[in-house]
Structure to design on (355 residues):
């Protein structure tokens, strides 16, 4: 089986009142049929391993998040009751997991289980950083995909701090993430270095330029219109280009007064990364036959503790209160439909009648 198309883009905003919102898109070469899992504190989890049972633990914190299909213990993007957000992003060709021989069996997790463990047990970025030595992540095939998913993670807390976790050379490397942006391959430090190529890119309207020498005839050149300061900003769907665009858009976004407005603003920014079905085709000559498309988009409000999302087949944003959801779960796992994610789904419209 050839690797499926996988592309995700994530970023964050801070409102004037200090509240933080974090959002991302989820792209995949096939619908993952994600659900919303509501996991109360005290829930029991058992990690998987290629050598029997992996890490067994109970969650310290309740959380919600979007699942990998029916795998409710694999969270692609989630929010816990302490305001911690964790997002899983594909990292093809660069993930280097701990080998089975070096992994501690009772401390082992599958790659897609790491985000769940983080949401279940930690409240801040610094707690995550300190706790990562207590777990090993090994290469394990997910039957749904028929392959080992190459992944890395973006973690953000309510203070605004963010880190990226990347499995490299058998270890979980932690990178501070002042950009609060993540896409896919190559490594996070490469993406930060690549930003140097765009130092002159600006949201400002460029000043006119006078061409020619005095007395010899001069021509005044002016921009054709708005947005000329962003000339040269990459517009393709590759991970490096999406990283640069997300940094540009979040860095230049007008600050909102509060978290509710910031959620709306971040959805508008993420609309720029919505990949239409057919615009990003897979490589020729491989087993892959599905073009990439944006399956769903989510935004977590780290102050108000709401998880907000829309899907390919329903562009209406839905909001789930984490506190209300945990109360309704009454100590048990609760699964909620996320919405239509199939590539042939059509978003509903609301007809307006004139009387």
């Amino acid at each position: 089986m050839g690797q499926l198309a996988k592309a995700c883009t994530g970023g964050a905003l801070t409102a004037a009142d200090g509240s933080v919102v974090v959002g991302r898109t989820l792209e995949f070469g096939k619908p993952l049929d994600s659900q919303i899992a509501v996991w109360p504190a005290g829930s029991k989890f058992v990690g998987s391993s290629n050598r029997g049972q992996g890490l067994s633990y109970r969650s310290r914190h309740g959380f919600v998040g979007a699942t990998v299909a029916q795998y409710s213990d694999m969270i692609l993007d989630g929010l816990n009751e302490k305001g911690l957000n964790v997002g899983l992003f594909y990292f093809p060709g660069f993930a280097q997991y701990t080998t089975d021989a070096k992994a501690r069996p009772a401390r082992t997790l599958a790659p897609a289980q790491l985000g769940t463990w983080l949401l279940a047990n930690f409240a801040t970025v610094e707690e995550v950083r300190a706790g990562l030595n207590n777990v090993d992540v090994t290469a394990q095939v997910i039957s749904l995909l028929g392959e080992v998913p190459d992944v890395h993670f973006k973690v953000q807390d309510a203070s605004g701090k963010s880190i990226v976790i990347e499995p490299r050379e058998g270890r979980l490397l932690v990178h501070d993430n002042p950009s609060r942006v993540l896409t896919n391959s190559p490594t996070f430090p490469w993406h930060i270095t690549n930003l140097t190529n765009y130092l002159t890119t600006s949201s400002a309207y460029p000043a006119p330029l006078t061409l020619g020498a005095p007395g010899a005839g001069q021509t005044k050149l002016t921009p054709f219109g708005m947005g000329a300061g962003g000339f040269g900003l990459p517009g393709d769907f590759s991970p490096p280009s999406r990283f640069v665009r997300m940094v540009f858009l979040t860095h230049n976004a007008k600050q909102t007064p509060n978290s509710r407005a910031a959620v709306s603003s971040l959805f508008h920014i993420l609309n720029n990364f919505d990949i239409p079905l057919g615009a990003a085709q897979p490589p020729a000559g491989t087993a892959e036959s599905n073009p990439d498309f944006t399956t769903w988009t989510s935004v977590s409000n780290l102050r108000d503790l709401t998880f907000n999302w829309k899907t390919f087949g329903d562009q209406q944003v839905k909001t789930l209160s984490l506190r209300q959801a945990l109360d309704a779960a009454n100590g048990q796992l609760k699964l909620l439909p996320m919405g239509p994610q199939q590539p042939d789904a059509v978003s509903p419209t609301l007809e307006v009648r004139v009387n």
